[in-house]
Fold these 2 entries.
Entry 1:
Amino acid sequence: MALTTGKVRPRRSTGPVVAVTGAATGAGRLLVRRLAGNADVRKVVAIDGHRGDVAGVLWRVADVRDPLLSNRLADVDVLVHLDIDRSPDSDPRERRTYNVRGAQTVVTASAAARVRHVVLVTSAMVYGAAPDNPVPLSEDAPLRGEANSSIVGDFLEMEEVAAQAPVTHPGLRVTVVRPAALVGPGIDTVVSRHFEAPRLLAVKGCAPCWQFCHVDDLASALEQIVLDTGAARASGAPPRVVGVGCDGWLELEEVEEITGKRRFELPAALTFGTAQRLHRLGITPAPATDLHYVAYPWVVDCAALRAAGWKPAYDNASALRALLEETAGHHAVVGRRVGGKEATMATAAGATVAVIGAAAAVRRARKRRR
């Protein structure tokens, strides 16, 4: 395993040494940049499969699934795990193996290296999206997400790793961070692709409530968490579960106004039944349960961070606008990216033709299999 170092500026701080996995891109890169400029952090260890472009940190090239990861964690006080595959296009089995094994290795390696605190980032999707969800959900609400082949199943298994850590590794503190629907540069998820569709899907009789989390806000929240600020200091230990997201939520009418897209409403049975058939035939990347997250509410109350004095820089409206800028030029239907011509046809045809087209795709797929 190669070891790559960068020039690290000397610090006088007696604060923590913080390691970040997935440090070369996305939220990991944003967090590393913030920590590198924070005088209360003694040293930043940036871990990824390749060296990133952030200066003033110690780069360690490593695979988070490697059992020898503990050798890269000498003197680390806090580790933030952000090396997670969230792509809708990843093979579900390979993604599950990468995400769960990565979490297992990070926790085990941290315990072996005597890291005091691990911060594991999953998603508020673990609460599940349901028409009867309270709005907002408390951070200690039961987890109702379905443990299937979707990304939610990955997050639930990762959280099981976190739940077992105090038993298998006494003395190791683990905080689980659950962001709302992520938006921002480089974010590509089943939820973000919903806004690449020509129309907004809605289930008859149900009203989704939209809450977002910009990756910049996730990075600032993680910075506060690793420094044991606010509520963590008051309790003598960091909180076990932390929700991160914009304050409040957007109603569907507000989303329509901001996006300039109209909704189309379908009965729940037709919507999810058709989506599941398309998924079984390999036409769409995600199981039908993922559509619950664009049809039903899953807003989380970020009480722990609010008590600590943290405030998001983005509100839901500005976060949604950032999402629209990031997805401009992309077109998706039921989570599958399509060409511009297909998307234009879907826009003109509307919901009825979209359903007929889905049924036709099912018939064509069945004929090919015969």
Entry 2:
Amino acid sequence: MTTMMTAASNSAKLADQLVIDLERRVLSGELPPGSRFPSEKAVVDSTGVSRTVVREAFARMSAKGLLVSRRGSGAYVAESARYQAFQITPDELSEIDDVHRLFEMRTPLEEEMAGLAAARRDDGDLDAMDAAIAALIASENVDVAVNADTAFHAAIAGATRNDYFVRFTEFLGVRLVPPRTVYLRNSDGVPREEYIRAIADDHAAIFAAIRKRDPAAARNAARAHMYKSMERHELIRGAFEAEDRTQI
């Protein structure tokens, strides 16, 4: 039984990796929409995996809307593949450098949200931000701290009065949970409480500017928070990479 379970687990991991590779080839344009997909045999020969793994990967690609089968003709890249929704998968956040790239993308987003929030916020938004900061400071475990961190940024997004910011922030929040979890643990001799206090201080600076209805100051505080977050993640690079190894 154990041997069978191990084999199934290995096959699933191989299929996961194959899907990632095939999806990258499609979304990068290497396999453009409408082009013929490599045959099962070609993939088996080029990767060394079994036909079972290839068929599983093809089934997943089909479920994602990236592959379509034509009876008697084979498999083709779906014409709609170029319009696939933007994604960031957990596998793409397996290294600190990947997280840094995500922070680089988030920085202008967070800046603009903070500026708009300062101009458009109401008392309810301020209450939500204040409560999130208080919850972060009072947190006694990682899950509570992560939720409080996420709630603060969600409150800023809500204060912009732009639903697209809200939805995109929700999307990013889910993807940042693994890095935040490692980030908020004790590592390199730095107590978790110090990390939490540093984050809370950053949040408080953004909050103060938003409360004063000062868009420029809010943008500056948000940008500083992103830069400091990158620096803090760099300090725990070793712990982050060790965490990643335990999940392999």
